[in-house]
Amino acid sequence: MKSELIEQAYQLAKARYADYGVDTDKVLEQLQNFHLSLHCWQADDVKGFEVQAGAMSGGIQSTGDFPGAARNIDELRQDILKAKSLIPGNHRLNLHEIYGDFKGKVVDRDEVTVEYFESWIQWAKENNTKLDFNSSSFSHPKSGSLSLANPDESIRKFWVEHTKRCRDIANAMGEAQNDPCIMNLWVHDGCKDVSVNHALYRNTLKKSLDEIFEKKQPCMKDCIEGKVFGIGLESFTVGSHDFYTAYAAQNDKILTIDTGHYHPTESPADKVSAVLPFIKELMLHVSRPVRWDSDHVTIMDDPTQELFFEIVRANALDRVHYGLDFFDGSINRIGAYVIGSRSAQKCMLRALLEPKEYISKLELAGEGYKVLALIEEQKAMPWQAVYDMFCLKNNVPVGQEFIADIDKYVADVTSKR
Question: Which pTM does this prediction carry?
């Protein structure tokens, strides 16, 4: 698309939004500071690089077998850089522990150290990328149905040690990048069928968390993530939303809101203002659940849009961290990154462009029909012209132009794997 046409469309949009008191130039600056944490596991379907890797288990499942998945650390890094080149702005990278640079060495998860992530730290510096991190309690001979909540003390201690070491690694990453590394803790622990030991498992999980968080880590931030159920563990989840919300509030931890981890009729957006009075910060894992936690690629659907509206309306931009968490192996994986990231950005852009102060005054004055009218009118405003300008300013393809770029990458790179 010609740059002069993009500029003309933007100037028209700028004038339209100015009528509502919205400064689109300021919004573009805000969007520039909106940093997503791209998840490394979209590039290889959550396989990782452990020498002793086994079948996926523990509530983790990626479907599809589209050609060209990354097979090693070099290919994964190459794919991530390609995806980043097609997404406007500068974004973080979120690593799971199983993506260490193990160099052919068998390293069990209670033995992992920062040594196996030094090359990631160096790569991140060279590519102007901040790192985030996750412990990995799934797809392991000792993961079973229970990890941190396991009454078997030997297994529980194994996973406690694993998670402690992950916090050490995250802290080293944060220190090296001079910016806190956000480490997410999610375990799949639960029961396939009826259980009479709910209290035992939850008390055990609390004991494990207390041990894990005992050591202060100044260069990282802890977040904890609940879930409704896991695959094969449908009847009971130890780390439910109630459990982790209470723990986060009591222990000053970041609460992770994963958009796929709720009942279909629940609104993740409504959780934002409900928990922020009690919890300092939130982490988002944004995906698209189709009937369940299916981790489809993020799109501009109503739930995602409402989530970002709620953050902006709550004046919580500086209290929320934004991660993506989908892994679709049925389509081009670079395309998945680009579509999901751009969709999240567009949702945030639309939220930033809303004249919320003006609409809020109308609501407080009892002008309900005007509130509804303006919210509906905003849906038809030329926000796309503003996003096109954002892409142009960041020197990335505008509109559908990224498709040709990805097709060339397929022809030159992934089709030869």
Answer: 0.96
